Amino acid sequence: MKKKLYGIVCFCSLILIMLYVCGKNTNLFKEANVTDIPDGLESEYGYDSPEIEKLREKYPEYFELGTFKGLEVYVWQMAEGEYRFGIMQGTNRVKTLEEMMALKGVTSEEMALILSTFDIEDRDIFVIPWQNPISSYMVTDDMVKDPEYISNIRTMLGLDLDEE
Q1: What is the separation, in whole angstroms, between the first and last Cα of the chain?
Q2: Element (H or E) spanning 124, and its range?
Q3: Which pairs from 26-34 meet CB under 8 Å and 24+ separation?
Q4: Residue range 1-28, pLDDT digits in tens
Q5: Rounded average pLDDT over 51-67
Q6: How far apart are CA 71 and CA 125, in angstroms?
Q7: What pLDDT, on a 0 to 100 scale, did the predictor assign at position 143?
Q8: pLDDT band per the 50, 70, 90 thresholds, residue 30
């Protein structure tokens, strides 16, 4: 078992090195899917719209969260340009791996709709990238520290950029 795991790690490392050396374009946001959810959501996506009701049924744990300490939107990548999101209420503490693994991944469009149901300022929504163990796509520290990375994710969710 250890040899197999070691082999997989070596293979993935080799692929990453080859991509880096070959100068593969790493601009992850060239064709980012931007969710445009305008102010006055009642017109297009009412609080009880069919789309939101479907999401309430599918992801009940993502609704009715407390917002006193804000909301934490966790984002992970499954592949280049393929993002998944989960949400928890803010707590001022580091979440456990068990809590993180319990997040159900939703698309940026779904998360934008979920966020639209909360009465909260964009500045109180914190985008937190993390390396989900189920993803084979490596998010590097350089990517996470790049202000453009978080800005692009906030844009995908329809959030103001200058709030975080």
Answers
A1: 43
A2: none
A3: 28/77, 28/80, 28/81, 28/143, 28/149, 28/152, 29/148, 29/149, 29/152, 31/81, 32/81, 32/152, 32/155, 32/156, 33/81, 33/108, 33/109, 33/156, 34/155, 34/156, 34/158
A4: 666 655 555 555 545 454 444 443 344 3
A5: 93
A6: 5
A7: 81
A8: very low
